[in-house]
Amino acid sequence: MVAFGAVRNAWFKGHGLGNDYIAVDPEQLDFKLTPARIRALCDRHTGIGSDGLLVLTPSAKANFGLRIFNPDGSEAEKSGNGLRIFGCFLHATRRTKRRKLTVETSGGIVDLRLDLDEHGDVHHGTVGMGRASFRPEDLPCTIEAEELVDQPVRAGAVTLRFTGVSVGNPHCVVLRSADRPWTPRDLQKLGPLLETHRIFPAFTNVQLAVATGRHELSLLIWERGAGATQASGSSACAAACAAIRAGLVESPVTARMPGGSLQIEVSPDYDVTLSGPVEAVARGQLADAFVRKLQR
Hints:
Blueprint: E1 10-16, E2 19-24, H1 35-42, E3 53-57, E4 64-69, E5 75-76, H2 80-92, E6 100-105, E7 108-116, E8 122-131, E9 151-155, E10 158-166, E11 170-176, H3 184-195, E12 205-213, E13 216-223, E14 227-229, H4 233-245, E15 253-257, E16 260-266, E17 271-277, E18 279-285, H5 288-295
Parallel strand pairs: 2-3, 4-6, 11-12, 13-15
Antiparallel strand pairs: 1-2, 1-18, 3-4, 4-5, 6-7, 7-8, 8-17, 9-10, 10-11, 12-13, 13-14, 15-16, 16-17
């Protein structure tokens, strides 16, 4: 068997609660990654198909470096599910035997712990996401306030109250009481309006959340550059922080999403840790004809 690291144009795919990513090492690719090529790789009809692309990079500050791209080719700062999938990729392709490692992202350095099943495969991961911030400059957001807690925002014909949270990437959390649950129709209507709202100059991820228990949240997610997704680790962290700040839940929090649940722990100073399942799906090699098409 040819070692994965020796295969040209190799790719790896995994998912966390249905939120799927492709992982690649650019040293193995015969082409440079551009927004157009990332869109082609992530296309679910004419490419491999995924919610984003994870790119291995060198790091002088951590064990590994990671760049994260949305399926529209734009770059994301951090992804809780993506980081667990990245750890799965590193272990499955024998780039590391470490169970505890550090990863440098554009949203900061994170601690990553990998748990193995009885076959020696990664099946669960824990990510130290760092300290959450409610400050407008950290998202960024143009609202002039000390913190983005329970702030008004106009979305189409509706005025909502949101809490802005950065966990290395931006989030707009809209909380609602349990007797008025959010629907997928609400997400399709409000998600794109809030994602690209003028108060978020770098755009934002959106969470429609409901506290369903003292330690439980239900949420729907609209990811920046991706749209509606089954699950998101950073979104779960942001929603948990917003709900804790509102006094609706207490840590630890189980964040329930259409794709499944993640466990979120938030310290009194809002340092956030998430844990949840991860699965390897496939490894492969891009067809020569597909590579030639990308190179045009």
